[in-house]
Description:
Layout: H1 2-17, H2 29-46, H3 63-72, E1 83-85, H4 86-95, H5 106-116, E2 123-125, H6 126-140, H7 146-157, H8 174-179, H9 223-228
Antiparallel strand pairs: 1-2
Helix pairs in contact: 4-5, 5-6, 6-7
Amino acid sequence: MADQKVNLDDFKVQTAKHPNMGSAPLRPHSEQSKDRLSKRLSTESNGTSEGGAGSSTPVEVTALEESFRRFAIHGDTRATGKDMHGKNWSKLCKDCGVIDGKNITLTDVDIVFSKVKKKSCRTITYDEFKVALGELARKKYKEKPGEEAEAEVFLLIEGKAPVIAGVTRAVASPTVSRLTDPTKFTGSHKERFDNTGRGKGKAGRVDMVDTSGYVSGYKHRGSYEKKVNKPTDGKPM
């Protein structure tokens, strides 16, 4: 009894300190998880962490970094946009016109990628990406200073997105066209299609018995019914 009295007294003290403690409704666990996820994404985009490190002001994403993210996630649903594979790096250089076939080739792009990335990694970060572009810029624009050459290459990439190739068209082959042309079919296969090349359906697969009463090959089928049932236009009966 003494223990119950002590617990009751403690509850009264807590209630006096926090009078609105019982009025706040409990939130579902799913909503709490959504709040934590939104907070994590917000802190990552603002350059802060949950511990308070970093700046509390939002970090402005440049056009170059936005293009980097677009190419980094291209073709990979699990990519985060923070690092880029060698395949997407080559595609970026090709789609944005960095590769010109003269000063910069696909081999040069692969060599620079292997040069700037860490030995134990298969991807490059955004900072390494800018270093790689600087390497290519000095080789692409040899007559310009380093900073000016980098600015020229950055302009080629800023605001760009991956180029998605169209649907591959079927090549017209004489062999295939001959096999798919119903006008050239023979035998039983010819009976499956009419003169326009449209399939007859069941009539082309099964011998249908004609029970109309007309002889085979009669071309004026139904003409008698039209004459007999011809309407009389105002003629007396």
